[in-house]
Design brief:
Elements: E1 2-6, H1 9-26, E2 31-34, H2 41-52, E3 62-65, E4 67-70, H3 80-87, E5 99-100, H4 109-121, E6 127-130, E7 152-155, H5 158-163, E8 177-180, H6 183-187, E9 191-196, H7 202-210, E10 228-233
Parallel strand pairs: 1-10, 2-3, 2-6, 3-5, 6-9, 9-10
Antiparallel strand pairs: 4-8, 7-8
Helix pairs in contact: 1-2
Bound molecules: 2-phosphoglycolic acid.
Length: 240
Amino acid sequence: MKLVICKDYDEASLKASEIVINQIKNKPNSVIGLATGSTPVGLYKKLIEGFKNGEISFKQVTTFNLDEYLGISHNHPESYHAFMRDNLFKDVDIQEKNIHIPSSDLKNAEKNALNYTKALQKVQVDIQLLGIGTNGHIGFNEPGSSFDNETFAIALTEQTRHDNLRFFNTIEEVPTHAVTMGIKTIYRSKKIILMATGLTKADAIYGMLKGPITPDLPASALRNHPDLVVIIDELAASKL
Ligand code: PGA
C-alpha cells in the first residue's frame, strides 16, 4: 500500500490525476473504474484539463462506474449518470459505447447487476477510483457487506442517506436503494486509488488503515490489495 498525504484537496486531486493521466498516456485503451461524490470532482477537472491541453484522449478509454441510485431517472440531476455527464463526459472525447454505469431501474435491479458483473468479468480494470464514506463504505458497500459480493443491489443505511441529504431537498427524496460493484469486483482491479479529504473522513481512514480487516468497515478489505494507493489530505490523516 502506498499512502500519499497531501496538504489539501487540490494537491490530492493533482496527485490522483497524475496517476490516471500517466495510465491513459501509457495505455490509451485503458479501462478506468470511476467514482462519484464530491471527492473526485477536482480530479475530473484535472483530467478535463489534460484532455483540453492535448495531453490525453479518452477516445479509446472504457469506463465502468462504481454505483448508482435505484429508483431515480438517469436524467435526475442527482443520478450518477447525470453526475458523470456533468463532471467529466460532456467535456472529453469519450465514446458513448465505452461508458458503463449501472442502471437505476429498481424493478430489474438483480438482473441488471448480474449483467454488469458479467461485463466487468470480461475486462481488466486498470485503475479503480474510490472515495470512502464516513462509515467506511466504498461505493455503496455499507458496513456488514460481504467481501465476496460482486455487483449487487442494497438498501442504504440511514447514515448514508443523511450524508447524501446535502444533494437533495428533503430526506424523503434521497433514494432508499442503490446498486454497487461489490468488494470482490473492486478488488480485481489492477490498481486502486482511494481518495479522502477533510476531518469527517479521519475516523474512516484510521479504521481502514489501522483497525481490523472487517466487513464492519468495508474499506479495510482493500488494505492488502497488491497495488493500493491511498491519497488523503492532512485532515483525513489526522488520526493516523
Ligand atoms: P464524498 O462521498 O466523496 O461525497 O465524500 C464518498 C463516499 O461516500 O463514498
